[in-house]
Design brief:
By secondary structure, the chain is an alpha+beta fold. The chain has a single domain, classed as Roll (Ubiquitin-like (UB roll)). Strands 1, 2, 3, 4, 5 and 6 form a six-stranded mixed β-sheet that branches.
Length: about 100
Amino acid sequence: MPTSNIVIMIQPFNGSRTIPIKINPAQSMKDLYRKVSEDRGIEIQYLKFIYSGKEYRPEDDNTANKTIADIGIKDKSTVQLVTRQPGGRYLGYVDDLCSLS
């Protein structure tokens, strides 16, 4: 298993600044959620990642326990970040925009 840190580029879906997160690929997705939560000041349960066409939610135990390497995220990969409001829907999600028409 890889032991040196990589940088993952977290791109908020709303187009705000990309967040570089340094993490070891042997760490869990739960650790990545925690780092992004601390950086953005958003509680973990309101975050969702999209990578390689798949959604990853922190409440999914199968996702949370996988490592960064298990998901296939590599150095300098971009992961989309989608957030939702407390008690609400995810913000900036393409399906939400399409359903408005």
